[in-house]
Design a protein that fits this description.
Blueprint: E1 7-15, H1 21-37, E2 41-48, E3 61-67, H2 70-76, H3 80-89, E4 93-102
Antiparallel strand pairs: 1-3, 1-4, 2-3
Helix pairs in contact: 1-3
């Protein structure tokens, strides 16, 4: 199904309980740096959970990447910089949740 509109790639991280805070900060920085290394990324934003609803299930970080279309997103997934980042992240990550959608008005 080919839908029109930009693609949002939403990534949630739940870090291991023993993940050192300096490593978590380094991961935040490295993920942010992907925007400058992967041309397909149109926009990037992130933040940490501050919801009062208490439903985050341990997920603390939310990253939202914007791509022109699904093909651009698809080129990001196997990109060497993304793969390298994933390898550096894995030792500190408990869970990851990914949701992609086409932005609609």
């Amino acid at each position: 199904m080919n839908q029109k509109g930009v693609v949002r790639h939403v990534v949630l991280f739940k870090f291991k309980d023993d993940a050192p805070p300096d490593q978590v900060r380094a991961i935040e920085t490295k993920f942010s740096a992907l925007r400058g290394r992967i041309p397909a990324i149109l926009d990037f934003e992130w933040g940490t959970n501050m919801s009062p609803e208490n439903r985050a299930e341990g997920f603390t970080h939310c990253f939202v990447l914007t791509f022109h279309d699904a093909a651009s997103r698809d080129s990001y997934l196997p990109h060497p910089a993304h793969q390298e980042f994933g390898a550096q992240l894995r030792p500190f990550l408990d869970k990851v949740l990914v949701v992609d959608y086409v932005s609609r008005d």
